[in-house]
């Protein structure tokens, strides 16, 4: 059974729970508790990842299959008692198996949290965000329970005791910056359908000459989306440009021919004028309206009557938002004083920026009213 099928089955039981017997209910609760124990514990996992416990365990496992607490402590340089307490938790969630006092074996799940694993970087990123969320009650108590509206004066600055924006602060933390880059790569590349799978690229994305700029990916990280676009649509003519801040662009090691990397701060005038398309993926939800309008304003000034803007974001329904999306909205509020938006909120934001929303494109399997959308906007007439 796939994870999606499991989720559907659980939701089906939850919606029709009246027909479940007491025995079945007890079994279901036990199974859910067991599943929860496997998925929880990110803070302890973060400790184990930071201490490279998973890496060392894989390297020192004996031929007979086990390793000792003493050897693990020696190789990591950590206190043996701390190692023992962490391994106790790792065993409880089945990431290791305890075979005797101070003796452990790896399990099939142990290897997924080695340092090079995207899941390990996900834990690092997630736990760093949890530090901000945990400060929300104190922040709102001090600020009169007003919705934050400035990316430079909100919960993040309160929790980190800094005046820097979240991205600026992360740029000073190489470990967190790396984790963020990895997670952004996953979020952009792991989707079943990319935007160019349901957007009419052939009819809409075309330029007269290879020297013309076809698309500018603003805040595009290390170029994930443009690389996939180039792979999927190799016959496209025109220049493809990925723009991001210096620390991100400098981390790019290689790009396919036809894709150019450019250092750019989207709060400054857009240097590429008259491109056919400008593209913002997962950008605007990082900014409250105050700063989002500045970003859109700089795009607008670079556009011509032949240009259009594509915004690739999660779009909330007007009612009955899912728990996942509501949780993501809180993450945006905590880290960036920002928000996830409904289509009407995007329409209003674009209108204020001098742009007009002409269509919200969506994948064929899009959820009703919720999920990722590709918003197409042009200069307001």
TrEMBL record:
Keywords in alphabetical order: Methyltransferase, S-adenosyl-L-methionine, Transferase
Enumerate the GO terms in the molecular function aspect.
O-methyltransferase activity; protein dimerization activity
Which residues does the UniProt record annotate as the domain O-methyltransferase C-terminal?
213-355
Q: How far does the signal peptide extend, from start to end residue?
A: none
Query: What Gene3D superfamilies does its record include?
Result: Vaccinia Virus protein VP39 (3.40.50.150), Winged helix-like DNA-binding domain superfamily/Winged helix DNA-binding domain (1.10.10.10)
Keyword S-adenosyl-L-methionine on this protein?
Answer: yes
Q: Which GO terms describe its biological process?
A: methylation
Q: Mind telling me which InterPro entries this protein's record contains?
A: COMT-like, COMT_C, COMT_dimerisation, SAM-dependent_MTases_sf, WH-like_DNA-bd_sf, WH_DNA-bd_sf
**Which residues participate directly in catalysis?**
285
Q: Name one Pfam family in it.
A: Dimerisation
O-methyltransferase dimerisation domain residues = 44-115
Q: Which SUPFAM superfamilies match?
A: S-adenosyl-L-methionine-dependent methyltransferases, Winged helix' DNA-binding domain
List the protein's name. Answer: O-methyltransferase domain-containing protein
Organism field? Cudoniella acicularis
């Amino acid at each position: 059974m796939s994870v999606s099928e499991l989720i559907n089955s659980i939701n089906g039981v939850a919606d029709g729970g009246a027909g479940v017997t007491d025995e079945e209910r007890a079994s279901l609760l036990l199974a859910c508790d067991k599943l929860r124990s496997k998925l929880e514990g990110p803070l302890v996992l973060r400790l184990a990842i930071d201490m490279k416990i998973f890496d060392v365990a894989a390297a020192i496992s004996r031929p007979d299959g086990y390793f000792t607490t003493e050897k693990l402590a020696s190789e990591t340089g950590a206190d043996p008692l701390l190692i023992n307490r962490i391994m106790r938790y790792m065993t409880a969630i089945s990431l290791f198996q305890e075979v005797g006092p101070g003796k452990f074996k790896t399990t099939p799940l142990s290897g997924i949290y080695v340092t090079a694993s995207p899941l390990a970087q996900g834990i690092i990123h997630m736990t760093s965000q949890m530090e901000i969320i945990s400060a929300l009650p104190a922040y709102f108590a001090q600020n009169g329970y007003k919705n934050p509206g400035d990316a430079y004066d909100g919960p993040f600055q309160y929790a980190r005791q800094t005046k820097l924006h979240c991205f600026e602060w992360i740029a000073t933390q190489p470990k967190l910056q790396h984790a963020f880059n990895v997670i952004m790569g996953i979020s952009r590349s792991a989707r079943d359908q990319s935007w160019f799978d349901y957007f009419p690229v052939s009819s809409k994305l075309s330029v007269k000459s290879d020297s013309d700029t076809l698309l500018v990916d603003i805040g595009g990280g290390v170029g994930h989306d443009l690389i996939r676009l180039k792979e999927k649509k190799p016959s496209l003519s025109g220049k493809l440009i990925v723009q991001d801040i210096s620390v991100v662009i400098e981390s790019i090691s290689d790009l396919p021919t036809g894709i150019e990397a450019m250092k750019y701060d989207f709060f400054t005038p857009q240097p590429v004028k008259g491109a056919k398309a400008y593209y913002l993926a997962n950008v605007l939800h990082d900014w409250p309206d105050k700063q989002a309008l500045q970003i859109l304003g700089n795009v607008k000034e670079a556009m011509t009557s032949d240009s259009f803007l594509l915004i690739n974001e999660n779009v909330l329904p007007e009612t009955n938002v899912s728990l996942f999306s509501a949780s993501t909205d809180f993450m945006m509020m905590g880290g960036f004083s920002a928000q996830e938006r409904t289509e009407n909120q995007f329409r209003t934001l674009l209108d204020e920026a001098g742009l007009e929303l002409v269509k919200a494109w969506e994948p064929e399997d899009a959820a009703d009213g919720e999920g990722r959308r590709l918003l197409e906007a042009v200069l307001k007439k």
